[in-house]
Amino acid sequence: MRHPARRPARTLGVLLGAGLLASALPSVSGAAEPAQPSPKAPRVTDGPGTNYAVDDPFTSDRTEWWRQDRFGMFIHFGAYSNLEGEYTRQDGTVCQDAEWIMRQCDIPKDAYEKQAATFDPSGFDAKKVVKAAKDAGQRYIVITSKHHDGYAMWPTKVNKWNLRDHSSFDKRRDIMRELKKEADKAGIKLGFYYSIWDWHDPDFADPATFPKYKKRMYAQLKELVGEYDPALLWFDGEWDAENPTNRWSPKDGAELERYVKGLKPSLLVNNRVGKRRVADGDFGTPEQEIPGQPVDGQPWESCMTLNGHWGFARYDHEWKSAAELTRNLLSTASRSGNYLLNIGPDKKGRVPDESVRRLRAMGDWLRANGQGRAVYGAGYSGLVEKPSWGEVSREGSKKLHAAVTEWPGKGRPLHLKARVPFDITGARVLGSGQKVTVKKSGDGFDITPSGDAVADTATVIELAVKSPGGVRGKGEGLKAEIWDNDSFEGTPKVTRTDGGINYAWRFDGSPDASVPADNFSTRWSGSIQPRYTDTYTFSTVSDDTAKVWIDGKLVIDAGVPHDPRVDKGTVKLKAGEKYDIKVEHREQGGEAHMKLLWSSPQQQQEVVPGSQLYKD
Ligand code: FHN
């Protein structure tokens, strides 16, 4: 199965031999100026004093639905679907791919446009698509509005390269509006995938004309947000690539994120709005893989195919089993991640039965016996080590759900290694009345069910746990001293109280309107009060430099200037105690970011809240 993440490199290899695709002017008016006045290219920021981190995506109301829903449906559907993954070249050879078929099969632009003109997804049934998602237990949908081939799946006014103006489809229909209507009725959030990289628009490749492409892109995004009110935008095609050369920059990303969130402040945006970094967007996007542990610095969502392709490929029968897919979902949720699982409708817009059957089987498992509790709103529990026999996720602070994929023989224990002291006060197998005994054993607990597994896919044992409650602080934040130089020299320009360190100043922002966007430094000082007695992991997301001292110990030393990245350090702390803390950030030039997060076996990852910080 091709690993799309390798696409760019592979594509580079293919394309260097394939000659320039983008140099051919479109036979359709792909480069028409937008019908409506194009949106003013917005300033990247309001300048000095602007902070782009409007909230903490780990805990904010804005991201709450997404962190609760956990499981979404990805849909790859576009003009490429009309070929169903196969293209017969003039020499009679058949070339196979899916959503990259134009490029991987070297289809000349006019031939691709000609085939797109026959595209007639009359079988697209939004009710059926939403039902498939609902039956699967998928609670949000992300559909490709425009993939790399530049073909818009809604009646954009920006150009004629779209499903309304360049197809054989019923011109009265709008599949995005149909999908939005059905999703709303079903209580399912709708998001749009949008590719920055555009193989069709002749202005994309040339730096001199790229601003014209950007204006058209902004105009299309304004249409999508204004016309369909999506809950999230899932950008893609942000990587450096050739043919057409993709020069998308972190600054382009900062500007684009600012723009779309200006259109709708509650919008969620993925990290491919920029350059797929921890400082871009609201969540990370590992693809075709599930990280082995919670991702540091940013919420995350793993996207995956049901077979080996995103777009429909009639020859690809390598379908993953429902059991494997469900276990992927359990692994993802147990690490506080989301799972975005893809379908690729065929050229008529129909969802393949193989997809529908697997998705329904996943939903059946989730609905049975309340087993969905191990996924929806569930997250990482640091109380225990990940066991070899399955996954363990937490529900709130009082429940763990052990999803057992390797059921022990009758009367044989499942061992759970504890990372911190806690008690298990109750245990039951969801969907079974069998007795479960729990006893302390060595470095943790032995959990012994007396009966059989409830389901081969996974059987969930719900554990009631009791651990020391967290100390709720009454802090107001740290003292912040801000210099308009990058070396803390002289008297601080600004001294104030900061209720936490959660800053994305990006390119033009700075800690205060009186401080220029470059060459500034900030020192936060005071004390920090941990909620739990634990070994805490502190993380910074920083650019250019960051240092963190706790109780006089240098916990993070990221003093060499760097691009946005995560640095971590650990320190043992006692619940309720107040420990000296000092944090320093320096900005020399370019981007500027500074966040301080914490996590521990009992503390979910979050920006350290002001309630646990004191000026002293
Ligand atoms: O190139 C695309 C690919 O076609 C697909 O859309 C995936 C889905 O996340 N994203 C890119 C590869 O990373």
TrEMBL record:
Keyword entries, A-Z: Glycosidase, Hydrolase, Signal
Xref: PROSITE patterns: PA14
Signal peptide segment: 1-31
EC number(s) per entry: 3.2.1.51
Keyword Transcription regulation applies: no
Residue stretches making up the PA14 domain: 473-612
Family matches, as InterPro entries: FUC_metazoa-typ, GH, Glyco_hydro_29, Glyco_hydro_29_N, PA14/GLEYA, PA14_dom
Residue ranges, annotated region (Disordered): 29-57, 279-298, 597-616
Domain of life: Bacteria
Pfam family membership, one: Alpha_L_fucos
Family: Belongs to the glycosyl hydrolase 29 family.
Primary role: Alpha-L-fucosidase is responsible for hydrolyzing the alpha-1,6-linked fucose joined to the reducing-end N-acetylglucosamine of the carbohydrate moieties of glycoproteins.
Protein name: alpha-L-fucosidase
Organism: Streptomyces albiaxialis
Lineage per the UniProt record: Bacteria, Bacillati, Actinomycetota, Actinomycetes, Kitasatosporales
